[in-house]
Amino acid sequence: MTPLIANAAYIGTPGKGILAADESTGTIGKRLASINVENVETNRRALRELLFTAPGALPCLSGVILFEETLYQKSSDGKLFVDILKEGGVLPGIKVDKGTVELAGTNGETTTQGLDGLGERCKKYYEAGARFAKWRAVLKIGENEPSEHSIHENAYGLARYAVICQENGLVPIVEPEILVDGSHDIHKCAAVTERVLAACYKALSDHHVLLEGTLLKPNMVTPGSDSAKVAPEVIAEHTVRALQRTVPPAVPAIVFLSGGQSEEEATKNLNAMNQLKTKKPWSLSFSFGRALQQSTLKTWAGKEENVKAAQEALYVRCKANSEATLGTYKGDAKLGDGAAESLHVKDYKY
Amino acid sequence: MSAFVGKYADELIKTAKYIATPGKGILAADESTGTIGKRFSGINVENIESNRQALRELLFTSPGALPCLSGVILFEETLYQKTSDGKPFVEFLQENGVIPGIKVDKGVVDLAGTNGETTTQGLDSLGARCQEYYKAGARFAKWRAVLKIGATEPSELSIQENAKGLARYAIICQENGLVPIVEPEVLTDGSHDIKKCAAVTETVLSAVYKALNDHHVLLEGTLLKPNMVTPGSDSAKVAPEVIAEYTVTALRRTVPPAVPGIVFLSGGQSEEEATLNLNAMNKLDLLKPWTLTFSFGRALQQSTLKAWGGKKENVAKAQATFLVRCKANSDATLGKYIAGASGDSAASESLFVKGYSY
């Protein structure tokens, strides 16, 4: 079993999931601004220390995605974050894409950049302790979107990124996010998701990617943000069916993104999927950013005296999501400040 | 929906699932008139309609055989034939819990500019034909695409053409109430090793499932009929466990869980080989979200044909022989087959014919 396969399988361990803490300097700035915290290195470091040293949190996690700066940062004790994570049984991961750029001639569709020198960068990240990577492709639903062009560009970008990662010892998380923005219904989202995922797996096959050494990070299948909400069981049914139609069993785990869902919504939806009695040859888990950190951030508000309470808030969400991967979440998590708050921001840019 | 959900959707899903019932599989008895002629000449039997009818009656009425089968693929002529009692074969099968299927392709033609690669024809008026077959009692169909391994084969053109042909056939079937068996056979001919076969099989299957998605085929209402992953016919043989591992790995990398069952073709394998390989796959401790069963032609009928020899007085013996293979393969779908159960030397005979054309 190559290390890629072992690491991918480990990330998919039932009861565990991923904390996406890879907000770029610009993006974390928006988060910090919302709690009136200055976007300086010490604060960015302090936030991540709060997260990684939260009592009880690491056992609920199999991986944490980091931004490049964080890969080299240390705790106030002088211990490298990657070492804290490794000692806590958590694999460090690294965001490697360089954001999106528009596709000329389309209606605001994008492709993702970051392939230049990617191999070299992966080698360095591996040396620093990273064992998996993440690359976010973005598609949208509209009258004529996603276009065949956008699907193809994003799928083949993901495939190229994936094989370069594998050449350099990193498990690639393949993330083809279909934005929730729009007034479409859940059936439309399902149809688009199936089409996009089919294209992704064809591209991955063309690029000789070892599926057993990858993870998928898809959107859940939901109605558009401007449409009426539906029950978690409905989301679960459409999501799992879309995955059954497109994701080969060789993929060990599917780690959902939370998009604009509130912390509680995301957990309930994941839980419903794991309760569904149907064929699921891959484990279904989480790779949440906002849906794990929202109430933690609000509770912290940048103040030292709030760290303990903030860490408890993180633990509550970690535990809830850990249970959701087992289908045992009872919906009884002590809701933190803002846990039920939608995190949707129209046309969200990371 | 990405998948076409027409008026037959529920029935398609139910039929596909039934065909994939563990413990059962498919008898491929759809040899065209030309092909059955080759079989007959091998046992000195005249290729006339009454003999073709007699052979199929022998197979279908074999005591104890039908419970091992969930489906039988028929050639068009057979769809309209009857037992000597005057009962339509189709009805006889249905009454015994076996679903009649129909071969709908019209054979292969060369792809110009390639090194002997082919595409399959049969799309013209396929919808109308499917409607007729449905009326006659058929509930699933089969279409055989053929690819080969060589220095530069299969070519991208061949893969694309065959995958798209299969997808177009599949959706037309579903529009007309027939579960399409998707058969992208990668021939065993050649001196390549098992790894090469695995790589080609994965590439081909990946293209097939992309094409099926493009054509809005409802995967839950289909079956896959692939080759097993083996070394080339000119290469050294390997153990069933090795074939099982490479085959299941290739399928895990390409076949979405929505597909209810995978019904292997036997290619040129002997009856016993095919059974042992299928058995090994079902014993393999790897997660398999589709059932793994058989859709065998030669590997179910070879020793039966020899035992029959076209003679009425041999029918009972031939039927007993047929039952042995049916039971063996039924056990193999459950991973319960014990080798050598049949003891018949014919069962171990390779059925490989170089450059085999149906």
Automatic annotation (TrEMBL), chain A:
Its EC number is 4.1.2.13. InterPro entries: Aldolase_I_AS, Aldolase_TIM, FBA_I. It catalyses: beta-D-fructose 1,6-bisphosphate = D-glyceraldehyde 3-phosphate + dihydroxyacetone phosphate. SUPFAM superfamilies: Aldolase (SSF51569). It is an enzyme of class 4 (lyase). It holds the Pfam family Glycolytic. Keywords: Glycolysis, Lyase, Schiff base. Pathway: Carbohydrate degradation; glycolysis; D-glyceraldehyde 3-phosphate and glycerone phosphate from D-glucose: step 4/4. PANTHER family: FRUCTOSE-BISPHOSPHATE ALDOLASE. Belongs to the class I fructose-bisphosphate aldolase family. This is Fructose-bisphosphate aldolase. It comes from Brassica napus.
